[in-house]
Design brief:
The protein is mostly beta strands. It contains no helices and eleven strands. Strands 2, 4, 5, 6, 9, 10 and 11 form a seven-stranded mixed β-sheet that branches. The radius of gyration is 14 Å and the shape is elongated. It starts with a strand and ends with a strand.
Length: about 120
């Protein structure tokens, strides 16, 4: 199977920056989509940013976050600037992957990394 491992979360002051990383490993032929979601307990998980053939951001990002990929390393990054307390959440990596040529696309999730923003 495929595993996604996130890193880079932690505690940051409001206005600060964090850079999250997510690396996919396992049986991978190609990665069609890599994305970041976040979830506050008791709330629905929401899209932060996704990178496929195009890039899509959640409305709340307001130009502060940037998603990028290093496909040679099966890695996606999320650069988060001007962080606000309301950005505090568990951030999850998501990837849509096929493990063989013309094989089925399967969505995988990381275990999440905690981002805490203090005022």
């Amino acid at each position: 199977q495929v595993q996604l491992v996130e890193s880079g979360g932690g505690l940051v002051q409001a206005g600060g920056s964090l850079r999250l990383s997510c690396t996919a490993s396992g049986l991978i032929f190609s990665i069609k989509t890599m994305a970041w979601y976040r979830q506050i307990p008791g709330r629905q998980r929401e899209l932060v940013a996704a990178s496929d053939g195009t890039i899509n951001y959640g409305d709340f990002v307001k130009g502060r976050f940037t998603i990028s990929r290093d496909d040679t390393k099966n890695t996606v990054f999320l650069q988060m600037n001007s962080l606000k307390p309301e950005d505090a959440a568990v951030y999850y990596c998501n990837a849509v992957i096929n493990s063989r040529p013309a094989g089925p696309l399967v969505a995988y999730w990381g275990r999440g990394t905690q981002v805490t923003v203090s005022s």
